[in-house]
What we know:
Layout: H1 2-5, H2 12-40, H3 46-65, H4 71-96, H5 108-117, H6 128-137
Helix pairs in contact: 3-4
Amino acid sequence: YSLVLNYTPTNNNQEVIFIRSMENLNQLASFRRLRVFTSLAGAIPSPVWGSLVILALISVFITMMFRISNDKVQITIMSLHVSTIAVIISIIYLLDTPFRGGFKLTPFQFQHLLEEVYPVADLTSDNKQNIRMFAMKRGM
């Protein structure tokens, strides 16, 4: 924001670029707000989660009804069935909350953008000289 708001266009071409930059910045802020709001609440509602768990338990119970004479085979089949259901529910949970937990998205791409694409502009401080130099180099 400081880079765009502190810039003063001097001709029509720079004014068009400035207006487009403001539009892009507003769109970026809207996308950030949307990301924050979606990270607070998962996409899958609680009743669906409840149904999923109940159906998983019913599935395990029905699998237990098919009695196999060999106990080792029965235990192996049940273990594989329960493990498969647990993995599927875990994957659904991890994909439902992409901004939290161990499977979350990281700010690496944004850090890379700030470090590699905008190396001159220090957006975290009030360094106006670097911001002006960056704008001049980019023809803004």
